[in-house]
Amino acid sequence: MSGKVVTITSGKGGVGKTTTTANLGVALASLGDKVVCIDSDIGLRNLDVVLGLENRIVYDLVDAVEGRCRVSQAMIRDKRIETLYLIPAAQTRDKNAVSPSDMIKLCNTLREEMDWILIDSPAGIERGFRNAIAPADEVLVVTNPEISAVRDADRIIGLVEAEERGPAKLVINRLKSSMVKRGDMLSAEDVVELLAIPLIGIVPEDENVIVSTNQGQPVALEAKSLAGRSFNNIAKRLKGEDVPWLDLNEKDGIFNRLGRIISGGG
Amino acid sequence: MASFLERLTGKKTSSADQAKERLSLVLIHDRTDLSPENLQSLKDRLIEVISDYVKIDTRQTEIEIKTDGREQTLIANIPLIRPRSRG
Fold first, then answer.
1. Residue A176 belongs to what domain range?
2. How far A246 CA lies from chain B's nearest CA (Å)?
3. Contact call for B16 and A147, based on CB within 8 A
């Protein structure tokens, strides 16, 4: 087996890298693939709580890299989907405990057992980011339809190109279609035009993401939520499937339709 | 703040349009590592050098950075003034 390494990064913090990593992990594993998610944000561990696995950590990424445990011992198996694993970040260690070549070595070991190795990158353009993209076969850049997030995404896309890990693919997260409609938010088309890289997914703003994160149950486990369906579609696109784009307005669809009937429109 | 588009069309532009316009400018400067002042000084010096050799119509001169995908190109459109025939 030779698994694929996909790094999820963004430049700006808080745009949804960890949420995207957790949900793509769940979505790919639900399709039957063997997936390991690696939290490479040393000192700011978070993927464990988003996946709901925080109480099961024994060893972490730095333990595995420094040989204090076998790689398999640092892999926490998910309770819900048995083909999903997490390697948590170290919480208390020096940020420079891991190097890009450590990450390449680790991923080469994991490739033999796994179909997918998803790396959750830290924000920023420093060492942590370099660690995260060094082993990548593919890079996903997450952004929000908002000025500072798009600007930082552009910087990151340039750096990914310079490291010959490009072209990166774009995930637009937290799009509010009602705001786009009234001209108060950049549309997905605007963002794609500005950043000029291929789009792999649009995830709408969805309160279910916060509710499910509160519960440690990634939203992709719920087939009904719009955000969950969007993440499942990104997973299928990663696998090479040609998936049609979701209608992100469908949640208020019935009201829109009623409105159109009342106003006599089509 | 009246944006370029507003002044051009006389219409109030949406905040999304303003964001797009501001971003497209800032991305050009980020990608080329060229500040607005340096770009202006580049334009001024370019005109100065060309003027040493030929007569140019400075009112119709256009020098700007065009974006195509992720590539930036410096485009200069500099009309030359035909010299008066001597006689």
1. 4-262
2. 22
3. no
Size of interface A-B (CB pairs under 8 A): 43
Answering whether pTM is above 0.95, one says no
Angle at A50 between CA A126 and CA A224, to 5 degrees: 125
Is residue B35 packed enough to be buried (19+ CB in 10 Å), middle (13-18) or exposed (0-12)? exposed
**Which among A158, A183, A194 is the nearest to B23, CB-wise?**
A194
Name the strand (E) or helix (H) holding A145: none
Record the tokens describing residue B43, joined without a space. Answer: 């334009």
Interface probe, candidates B25, B27, B30, chain A, greatest A C-beta count within 10 A? B27
User: What CATH number should be reported for the domain holding residue A122?
Assistant: 3.40.50.300
Nearest to A196 by CA among B68, B16, B32, B69: B69
Q: Would you say the C-alpha torsion A130, A171, A177, B71 has a positive or negative sign?
A: positive
Residues 6 or more apart from A103 whose CB is under 8 A from it? A40, A119, A131, A132, A134, A135
Contact B20 A183 (CB under 8 A): no
CA-to-CA separations, A109 to A88, A128, A135, A224, in angstroms, rounded: 17, 20, 11, 36
The rounded distance, in Å, linking the Cα atoms of A246 and A229 is 8
User: How many domains does chain A fold into?
Assistant: 1
Chain A residues touching B24 at Cβ < 8 A: 194
The set of residues, in sequence order, having a beta carbon less than 8 Å from that of A265 and lying 6+ positions away, is none
pLDDT band at A249 (very low <50, low <70, confident <90, very high): confident
B5-28 pLDDT, tens digit per residue, is 566 666 678 999 999 999 999 999
Between the alpha carbon of residue B7 and those of residues B2, B13, B82, the distances in Å are 7, 10, 34
pLDDT tens digits along A49-69: 999 999 999 999 999 999 999
How does DSSP assign A177-197, residue by residue?
A: HHHHHTTSS--HHHHHHHH-S
Does the CB of A35 have a partner CB in chain B at under 8 Å?
no
Q: Is B33 left (phi over 0), alpha (psi -120 to 50) or beta?
A: left
